Automatic annotation (TrEMBL):
PROSITE patterns in UniProt: PSI_RSU, S4
Native organism taxonomy: Bacteria, Bacillati, Bacillota, Erysipelotrichia, Erysipelotrichales
EC number: 5.4.99.-
Gene3D superfamilies reported for this sequence: Alpha-L RNA-binding motif, Pseudouridine synthase I, catalytic domain, N-terminal subdomain, RNA-binding S4 domain
Organism expressing this protein natively: Turicibacter faecis
Protein name as catalogued: Pseudouridine synthase
Family: Belongs to the pseudouridine synthase RsuA family.
Length: 255
């Protein structure tokens, strides 16, 4: 179930704030009854009207974008920076929003949808969906130096869940290392903070996989719809509380 104002916003009628105002003004009905409270939730099967006009729900859509660096993972930006939605303008009619975020200077797999339930399942910590990152870090890393990440490490007063970290290569000339990290959390700047905590600041970061989804075959800035099977698999992964299968790694690309 979703809050009524959120459903109205997702239908493209108004922003969520404007939708809240319309509800408070008594201009929204659910099953022919006027709603004036903001806490009301709906299942999606109700008859909803806004100012007497029936709400037309969008078809649920799901996309994966190969996010380039230099874009923010938000619908809009107060600093007028380019957003990931710029890639969908004039190509997708539905009102999309990102599933979680990738930092401005982080590239890779980013899911976008207009399905709030799906987005919540993907982002909720209980889903424990593996996210695979490739990080170019400062310094010469050894497998030994990565062990704290496997045990969990304190970041901002919070101990991270055990992660899987693997040294891919070292560049002695440029004093840097390439490391693969698998986590199923998604706290703010978490990957960068984890590497900072063990003394190897991130120079460059890319998300290689989100669960079963990667961006193989997609150039930076390109996107494709998820297949029904991919959507079903992601939801199953989020719903299944048993131990998740190991991620099947794709071949490492140049980074």
């Amino acid at each position: 179930m979703e809050r009524l104002q959120k459903v109205i916003a997702h239908a493209g009628i108004a922003s969520r704030r404007k939708a809240e105002q319309l509800i408070l003004e008594g201009k929204v009905t659910v099953n022919d009854k006027v709603v004036r409270e903001l806490g009301v939730k709906v299942t999606g099967k109700e008859k909803i009207e806004v100012e007497g006009i029936p709400l037309q729900r969008e078809k649920k859509v799901y996309y994966v974008l190969h996010k380039p660096r230099g874009f923010v993972s938000t619908v809009s930006d107060e600093k007028n920076r380019r957003t990931v939605l710029d890639f969908f303008k004039d190509k997708v009619s539905e009102r999309l929003y990102p599933v979680g975020r990738l930092d401005y200077d982080t590239s890779g797999v980013l899911l976008l949808t207009n399905d709030g339930d799906f987005a919540n399942k993907m982002m909720h910590p209980s889903g424990e969906i593996d996210k695979v990152y490739l990080a170019r870090v400062k310094g010469i890393v050894t497998q030994e130096s990565l062990k704290p990440l496997a045990k969990g490490i304190v970041v901002d007063g919070y101990k991270t869940k055990p992660a899987s970290a693997r040294l891919i290569s070292v560049d002695k000339k440029n004093q840097s290392s390439l490391v693969q990290l698998i986590i199923h959390e998604g706290k703010y700047h978490q990957v960068k903070k984890m590497f900072d905590a063990i003394g190897f600041p991130v120079k460059k970061l890319r998300r290689e996989q989100f669960g079963c989804i990667d961006v193989v075959g997609l150039a930076a800035g390109e996107f494709r719809p998820l297949t029904p099977h991919e959507v079903k698999t992601l939801v199953s992964m989020a719903n299944d509380k048993r131990e998740k299968p190991k991620v099947k790694f794709t071949k490492m690309r140049q980074f």
